[in-house]
Each structure stands twice: as C-alpha cells, then as structure tokens.
Amino acid sequence: MGILDLFKRKPEVVEDLELSWLEVDMHSHLIPGIDDGSKTMEESLQLIKRLSDYGLRKIITTPHIMSEYYRNTPEIIRMGLEDLRKAVKKEGISIEIDAAAEYYMDEIFLEKIKDGEEVLTFGDNYILVETGFINKPQMLLEIIFQLEMAGYKPILAHPERYQYLISDKGLLQDLTDRNILFQVNMLSLTGFYSKPVKDFGEMLVETGQVRFFGTDCHNPRYLDMMEALPKSKLYQKIKQLDLLNSSL
C-alpha cells in the first residue's frame, strides 16, 4: 500500500431511503391541479409510485385550503381523490389513498369552526393546520381552543419551519403544555429548508415532541432531496419513535 493510499477516503455508502417503519404519510399535495402540489395526474402517479416503493402502505394527501389562494372545499377534494384513486388502480400501484386537508389558520377558518361547517379530518378526528412562516397569528391559541372545543385534535404542520416559534420559547412551551400534536417534515432533517429549520426540527425530535412525520411532498424534487434522509444523524432514532402515523 502506498503512502497516498492512507489518505484516500472510502466512498460514502448511503443507505437507501426506506419508509415501511412510518407506514402512513399523512401530509402531501398529490391531487393534481388544485394547489401548489402536483400539476398533472401523470406527475401524481409518478410520485405515488415512488412513495409506494419506499415501503409506505397508505397515503393521506392533504391539499391546502387557504381562503385567499386555494379555495378548496371538501367536495372538490373528494372529487379529486376519486379521480386519483381510479388512476392509481388503473396503474396497478399497490397503496391505499385517502385525503383530508391542510387548513390555513385565519379568521375565515375560525368562522368555519364556530359555525360548525364540515372540515376534513382523518384518524382519531385529527385535523392538519398550518400558519404563515414568519409572524405568529394573533388568533393562534384562540383557533386551537375552538378546534378542541369542537372535538377536533389539531396537528400543527411543520412547526420547525415557523420562524416565530423558533424564536419564542414561551409559545413553544404553551403549545407543548396544551398537548398540541406536532408533525415534522422529514425533509427538514436533511437541511432542505435551512440550517435553523434543521436544528429546530432536530431539537423537537430529541425532546420527544414529534408525534407525526410527513413528506409534505409537492413535486419530484421533494422526494429527490428526501432520499438524503438516511444521512441524517437522527435517521435511526426517528425510526424508533413512538409515532402515531401507523395508527391512521
């Protein structure tokens, strides 16, 4: 062996992404053409095939419902789900497909809850909710309270991405004390969004505050980047967490 051989690095062997431990992805945007996710049925089928190949047994896709941008309704989502299921079956992809929604928490959403309008839930009356990324919504705790009073169990989508939450430890403690369920994007642990998001996501994992993981898949780039997840220092740890995905 030459002396130079001592300094040669062996090529890094990256484990293939495998998600059978997760079983169910409960956050994605795979109904084509109704939000900022998949644009065509062909793209949706390609993404669903890849998710199936990772070992998932079920997908609960969650189109945005945002009053100013994506004015989806339960009827629109159910129609899109029916078309998607037919296409998946025709393509011979062996995976269960269901749908709910990712609700943007604003005044209009609050009125829907107070008025008892239909909202899309999944599992044990879970409802997936989100906020803007920079500023804390003034009515955040009020909306959560109204959801709980109505019998829903709110899941806060990708809390690690909210700048106001990263900088407000008191608010994080308030949400934790109220047993708000947190869903972290697996992409966050790869550094896909930013290092602060990655660091905060890792902290939520390390402190046991994560009850759901999701892909938040919008397009092929999301899955391309997610395949780096096995490089994460927490990859083995998250596979052992007591998550609620498998109960869905």
UniProtKB/TrEMBL annotation:
<dbReference type="Pfam" id="PF19567">
    <property type="entry name" value="CpsB_CapC"/>
</dbReference>
<dbReference type="GO" id="GO:0004725">
    <property type="term" value="F:protein tyrosine phosphatase activity"/>
</dbReference>
<keyword id="KW-0378">Hydrolase</keyword>
<protein>
    <recommendedName>
        <fullName>protein-tyrosine-phosphatase</fullName>
        <ecNumber>3.1.3.48</ecNumber>
    </recommendedName>
</protein>
<dbReference type="InterPro" id="IPR016667">
    <property type="entry name" value="Caps_polysacc_synth_CpsB/CapC"/>
</dbReference>
<dbReference type="GO" id="GO:0030145">
    <property type="term" value="F:manganese ion binding"/>
</dbReference>
<dbReference type="InterPro" id="IPR016195">
    <property type="entry name" value="Pol/histidinol_Pase-like"/>
</dbReference>
<comment type="similarity">
    <text>Belongs to the metallo-dependent hydrolases superfamily. CpsB/CapC family.</text>
</comment>
